[in-house]
Amino acid sequence: MNAATTDRTAHVQSARDIEAVRVELSGRDPALAVAHAAAGPFEWHVRESGFAGLVRLITEQQVSTASAAAIWKRFAAGVGSVTANNLKAFDVDTLKTFGLSRPKAVYVRAVADAEAAGAIDFTRLPELSDEEAIAQLTALKGVGRWTAEVYLMFCEGRTDLFPAGDLALQEGFRLAARARARPSEKDLYARAERWRPYRGVAANLLWSYYRDVKSGEIVVPAVEQAAPGRQPPKRPRPRG
User: Fold this and answer.
1) How many CA atoms lie within 13 A of 81 on its CB side?
2) Share of the chain above pLDDT 90, in %
3) Number of folded domains that form the chain
């Protein structure tokens, strides 16, 4: 991790620093004050970065935490070392036998081809701004903005990203704001501007609050339990 990336991350890595940032954010936004008062402490887990880190995120998309762990274990055992050169030795049908759906098998193979061709250099991503890095990542087949933002948050430890397209974040904010309607992605991005440069901590706080409400650890008035429209998918906060 280079000096620029360290400057973006080191000051909110410890539990004590995260708590201090939560208190500061609570003073900026009443919805975050509600979430902070109710949700327990959390740590910032930084995962493996680079090619293997992105591939793992792709394999974990839209499945439960338990399923994600099982799929990754099976996949890693099947391919051996998770490198672009190793993955290029397997076709899509073989990758499916390691537990991936066909679309995910296509996507991880495409990422392997892209790195092997020099279309993406994971060692240089930390040198780029957030938006530059997102542009590099989303140019890859199967990598959308959500995946790119989550990669930068949890694999590079960047703390000022906020994946507002995440339905669990939208629902967590709705519950904390005591609102009847879930905010749109655009509206939540706009709201998150007031949380800079700690939007990643705000995201973790809202994920934690949402998870605790859904598990029953936090009780909110019944009228606030369900918003119109479909419920958030089972897409948990990535864990180390």
Assistant:
1) 4
2) 80
3) 2
Tell me the CATH number at 82: 1.10.340.30
Residue pLDDT, tens place only, 102-154: 999 999 999 999 999 999 999 999 999 999 999 999 999 999 999 999 999 99
- What would the mean pLDDT of 179-208 be, rounded to a whole number? 97
Nearest CA to 198 among 63, 17, 71?
Answer: 17
CA-based nearest residue to 1, from 159, 157, 154:
157
SS (H, E, C) 162-203: CCCCCHHHHHHHHHHHCCCCCCCHHHHHHHHHHHCCCHHHHH
Here the contacts of 91-98 (C-beta below 8 Å, separation 24 or greater) are 98/74
Q: Which two tokens stand for residue 238?
A: 């990535």
> Is residue 17 one of the residues assigned to a domain?
yes
Distances 159 to 65, 90, 197 between C-alpha atoms, Å: 22, 35, 7
Measured CA to CA, the distance from residue 163 to residue 188 in angstroms comes to 9
Q: Residue 232 falls within a domain, yes or no?
A: no
80 lies in the same domain as 117: yes
pLDDT, mean of residues 223-230: 47
Q: Is the pLDDT of residue 228 over 50?
A: no
My answer on whether 90 and 133 are in the same domain is: yes
d(CA 163, CA 146): 6
Q: Is residue 239 part of a domain?
A: no
